[in-house]
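Whiteboard transcription, Tuesday session. T.W. wrote the structure tokens on the left side:
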């Protein structure tokens, strides 16, 4: 089973890159952030509190969540756009901090990959927890300014507000006890600040080619060569 793990904080270009890499490799693509967002949407829809683990597990257990073809469905209802709302974005770090929810979603992510014969999975803990033995683990970074500008361009929100929200989520996602956002051991770190997404895609594909073609010459963890300008 061929698995590529793409992790990193918001605004580093994960989704664009993961989708394009999946297309190039003819693999399926899973945005695991969308899974945490869909559960968050459901909790809020049921009037539950994001901090309340029982309410979160109840929301997960009481509906059928499906993620296919870049769409998120809850009991057949298309919530692809709704999971990007400011309310969901504000609550998702809290929801995703609950260990039992994480355990269940990690199990579903592994099952998804099995069912699809592998895939390109993007998130925060794919290389560290979900697939530590992935063929390639990439950790995308970018400067806070670049990340905020990218997200603001997508959402149309004011840059200062978007920057504050990203900083708050970074803190929450990096400091949680369970599977915090961190570079996985053996991950190749790519700073995308000054790279267009097609350049990032080309580097990821080149890393995979190198891994297959010349064993020993480049290994995940050879961070120097993968860094910008390297
Ligand atoms: O990638 P995103 O911004 O849509 O992710 C939304 C939130 O979900 C993010 O703030 C942290 C959480 N998340 C996570 O904890 N683990 C993942 N594998 C993916 C996302």
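and on the right, the sequence the group agreed on:
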């Amino acid at each position: 089973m061929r698995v590529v793990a793409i992790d990193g904080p918001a605004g580093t270009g994960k989704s664009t890159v993961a989708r394009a890499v999946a297309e190039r490799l003819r693999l399926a693509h899973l945005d695991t952030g969308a899974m945490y967002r869909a559960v968050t949407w459901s909790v809020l829809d049921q009037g539950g509190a994001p901090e309340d683990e029982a309410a979160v597990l109840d929301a997960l257990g009481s509906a059928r969540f499906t993620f296919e073809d870049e769409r998120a469905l809850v009991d057949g209802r298309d919530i692809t756009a709704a999971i990007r709302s400011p309310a969901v974005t504000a609550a998702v770090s809290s929801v995703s901090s609950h260990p039992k929810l994480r355990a269940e979603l990690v199990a579903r992510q592994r099952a998804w990959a099995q069912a699809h014969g592998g895939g390109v999975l993007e998130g925060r803990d794919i290389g560290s927890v979900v697939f530590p033995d992935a063929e390639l683990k990439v950790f995308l970074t970018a400067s806070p300014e670049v990340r905020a500008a990218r997200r603001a361009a997508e959402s149309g929100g004011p840059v200062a507000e978007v920057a504050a929200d990203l900083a708050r989520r970074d803190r929450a996602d990096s400091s949680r006890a369970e599977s915090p956002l961190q570079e996985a051991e053996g991950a190749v770190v790519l700073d995308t600040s000054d790279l267009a997404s097609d350049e990032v895609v080309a580097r990821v594909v080149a890393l995979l080619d190198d891994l297959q073609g010349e064993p020993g010459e480049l290994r995940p963890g050879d961070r120097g060569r993968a860094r910008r300008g390297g």
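Someone added at the bottom: Residues 10, 32-33, 36-37, 92-93, 96, 123-125, 169, 173 surround 2'-deoxycytidine-5'-monophosphate (CB under 6 Å).
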